[in-house]
TrEMBL record:
Domain ABC transmembrane type-1: 71-285
Protein name: Sugar ABC transporter permease
Record field: transmembrane: 12-38, 76-96, 108-129, 161-182, 264-284
Pfam families in the cross-refs: BPD_transp_1 (PF00528)
Naturally occurring in which organism (per UniProt): Paenibacillus psychroresistens
SUPFAM superfamilies per the UniProt record, alphabetical: MetI-like
Annotated GO CC locations: plasma membrane
Homology family: Belongs to the binding-protein-dependent transport system permease family.
Amino acid sequence: MFSLRYKAQKTMILFAFLLVPLLLLATFSFYPALYLFWLSFTSWDGYSPAKAWVGLDNYKELFANRELLGVFSHNLYYLFGGIVQNVLALMFALLLNIKLKGRNAFRVILLLPYILNSVAIAYMFSYVYDAQFGSLNSLLTLLGMEHFITSWLGNKHMVNVSLAFISAWKYMGFNMVIYLGALQSIPSDLYEAARIDGASRSQSFRYITLPSIGPVLELSMLLTVSGALEVFDLPFIMTGGGPAGASETFVTKTVQTAFNFSNYGLASAMGVVLLLIVVTVITIQRKLILRGGNDR
């Protein structure tokens, strides 16, 4: 009898602990996602009670408008910057994983950009990239490299490179800490055995380090790809999508469609398409690129 009461109490406690997070998940994740999906089949201006059903018209307009889908080319800059950032983060993690004087201070310095607020970083780099009084152009002048001076946020060929650099600078320290934790979890006995067998450092890195941190590399690349597809804050704050739409991303275009043009139906369809693209890209990345089609 006592055993049955104990099992019942255990079940009730587990249910009670799960109920709150499940309700929060349903309220703030599942319901908004379903509501977004439903809105994508309607025509709504954002404030009137009427939401006219238009079926697939929003999706037809989206795929027929090259301008809406063409902004994905701007996201490629952030993807390339994210890949470079991951390589640099791994290099710094390898360097700071050895016995190096002041390595804790270097770790803190590299992690600081990630701790800073994104809006503060955007305003800070707005002064750095200022065409007339920016510190970057002043530094180039001081170094006698005036031919490199340009309007970093006003030049359509440089604006996305400039913004992608900020993103890479901000998140490199975060990835470095993740890689550092993964490196420190590798047993030192493996490296000692490899040295006894005559393995070089490059061979130890290839056959011990990389396979050991493979899951962490996969996670970082998943975050990099999804983050590159969902870039919003930097172009929205620093350039507003300019000059002449050269720095618009798919998310900034979605926000503009909803709030500037009051077309919430089309914006919802754009959100659904972005969600499907992110899920598809991540699935391909996991199954074909990173895992070679086989689970570890």
